[in-house]
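Sequence and fold:
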Amino acid sequence: MQDHIQHYEDKLKYETDSWDLNEAIQNGENVVVIDARSAEAFEEGHIPGALSFPHRTMNEDSTADLDREALYVTYCDGIGCNASTKGALNMTRLGFRVKELMGGLDWWKRDGYPTETG
């Protein structure tokens, strides 16, 4: 039984859903949303306030000015896209506290939350 509890506790340490992310944003929590897809995909539509930060560009230099106290939430298109996982791995390796958005932009939109372009 304890193994099961630990499994779910661990899962919640590393993943979040649209509702929880929206609540964190609305409550003014120190959360930075990262769109880990290409800049072109970001331009076509993204979570409002998200930072366009393609996973391939994440390194010590490109993250030097980021807030080390914030929680970073990475996302991509959704199922079938692993840019959010690659971004979360990169950011974790660089020493940041990170969660991955379950379902990505697809589930964000399905849950009725807004997106913006440009």
User: Anything to note?
Assistant: The mean pLDDT is 96. Residues 2-110 form a domain with the Oxidized Rhodanese; domain 1 fold (CATH 3.40.250.10).
